[in-house]
Amino acid sequence: MSKPYLFLAVAILCEVIATSAMKSSQGFTRLVPSIFTVLMYCVSFYALSQTLAVIPTGIAYAIWSGVGIVLISLVGWIVFQQTLDAPALIGMGLICAGVVVINVFSKATAH
Question: Which chain regions cross the lipid bilayer (predicted)?
Answer without folding.
Answer: 28-48, 60-80, 86-105
